[in-house]
Amino acid sequence: MILEKKSKKKVDVEKIIPKLLFLMAAISVFTTIGIILTLIFETFIFFDRVSIVEFFTASKWLPFASVPSFGIMPLIVGTLKITLIAAVVAVPVGLATAIFLSEYASEKTRRIIKPILEVLAGIPTIVYGFFALTFVTPVLRELFPSLDMFNALSPGIVVGIMIMPMVASLSEDALVSVPKSIREGAYALGATKLETTIKVVLPAAISGIVASIVLGLSRAIGETMIVSVAGGSTPSMNMDVTSSIQTMTAYIVQVSSGDAGYGTTIYYSIYAVGMTLFVFTLVMNLLAQFISRRFREEY
Amino acid sequence: MKLINKSHVAKKMPVRLAVNTICKGLFFLATLIGLIVLAILFYRIFTQGIGHLNGDFLQNFASRKPEEAGIKAALIGSIWLMAVVAPVSLMLGVGTAIYLEEYARKNWITTFIKVNISNLAGVPSIVFGLLGLTVFVRALALDRSVLAAGLTMSLLVLPVIIVASQEAIRAVPRDLREASFGMGATKWQTIRKVVLPAAIPGILTGGILALSRAIGETAPLVVVGIPLFIAFLPQTVLDTFTVLPMQIYNWTSRPQEEFQQVAAAGIIVLLILLIFMNSIAVLIRNKFQKRY
What is the CATH number of the domain that holds B283? Predict the structure, then answer.
């Protein structure tokens, strides 16, 4: 007696809503397709004007020169320099933080420190860029007078600080999920806490830890504002970290905030660089997912 | 079987314990590094910027003279941006989460959507800028407007909202749904009147965190072509505008020393805004967190 009247309308809503929600879910897929199509189409136009062989083999990236040269290697080298320095900072510090929080710290200490690390992760990258330029670089120049105003070292260190909370928090998750019984087995054999951690807990959590590092490095590769503000705009192939560099992301920012007219070769070059960046980070993200799925130890 | 040589163990034990203590100290020091950097960062920016932070700074437009430079256009612009990003990303994010948690069957399409979302979360923000430039600015001819930038940012923060909403919806116990079905409610009625209200604190927390990410992002807006220097306020969502991080970026990249203080003052405003939003998120989480 309740249902007779409304039932027809109800059925319609019940049928439409799932379809509507599916459309919304499809938008995230369309976003990915949109990104890939955009990059592919515009990159093709770029490769119509610049040979793909030059792009991958030429050793100079000089798009603004009178005789422009488009060899992406210097941008990749700059990006890898930043990533390497960031890794040197973030991996040991992040891992040590994770070990301290999961193995040594009391519940109370952990509850204080974790939110503070989250704050560190939530700071906008432009703020980090400002910090690198106005604080870290001057301090480093006191230590190494030969350091240029724009260099790879300072933004590299700051990118490392930026990704450190991510490495720490994901590694800590991996360490915490190692069951207590395994630790207690090691203690029963007379191992100290350190020996238990290094020889038993770390190996058991290694897949999660490696995945967290790979994800952190992928984030470092895609980081933009810190390197744009503090890294300079001089693409170079050498491994010197004291001089100005340019990364893939910083190049895209340089062109976008300048006046590269629509339709010029320089305009299309940001898509070719963006495509390279996208492929780099996609491979690393898939690798991280693969590692954490394939090598996860089940207890 | 060889027995344990007790004297050998006893001889080694102090060293092993000492190494343990030393390493514990090292791990603790490493943990402190993050906290120290955070303290230095806040201290530096506060002392640099506080002198410039006054009523004029909030009410003036950007200027070529550092002493007259203000943040009005950027502050209002950030609010405009939020007004686009919040409804668009929340609607799409929550809708996707409901679909995945309540309706989706376990098939390859669902798996594909899920894998796609986690990959999308790892795409660098600057690549979203390239998407926004091509699709919204050029193809849809929205130009460098609030709408174009807002849609770009919505797609960027979408994965965060989806994941947070999924977790919130998953945390609603089955009993509640079954009680609702038992009363004769349909699936959509159950979702709308039972599941969503119960999941709202979690969804809002995730939503605010995603919004604060959108407020702090700079890279995609640079690529979309949001101007670095603007001295007027947008009237509609089709007008161009600027936002806090862009304004800070503009000041940071100026050679004059004074602009560093202006930039620091801008950063203080941005950080206060973010801390304010995060506190609201924490407050919601604490206040409405129901235990079933």
Answer: 1.10.3720.10
For A241, which DSSP code?
S
**pLDDT tens for chain B, residues 1 to 292:** 677 788 888 888 899 999 999 999 999 999 999 999 999 999 999 998 888 888 777 777 777 777 777 888 889 999 999 999 999 999 999 999 999 999 998 899 999 999 999 999 999 999 999 999 999 998 998 888 999 999 999 999 999 999 999 999 999 999 999 999 999 999 999 999 999 999 988 899 889 989 999 999 999 999 998 887 777 788 888 888 889 999 999 899 887 888 888 999 999 999 999 999 988 888 887 777 665 5
Contacts of B139 in chain A (CB under 8 A): none
Q: Give ipTM to 2 decimals.
A: 0.91
State whether B23 and B62 are in the same domain: no
Residues B28 and B73 in one domain: no
Give the domains, in start order, of chain A with CATH numbers: 74-267+280-295 (1.10.3720.10)
Q: Which domain holds residue B14?
A: 6-52
Nearest by CB: A93 against B30, B245, B271: B30
Longest distance between any two alpha carbons in chain B, whole Å = 86
The nearest alpha carbon in chain B to A224 belongs to: B219
Torsion of CA A164, A167, A173, A179, to 10 degrees: -110
Cβ of A124 within 8 Å of Cβ of B95? The answer is no
Contact assessment for residue B157 and residue B213, using Cβ atoms and an 8 Å cutoff? yes
Chains A, B: CB contacts within 8 A come to 241
B77: closest CA among B204, B218, B210, B206? B218
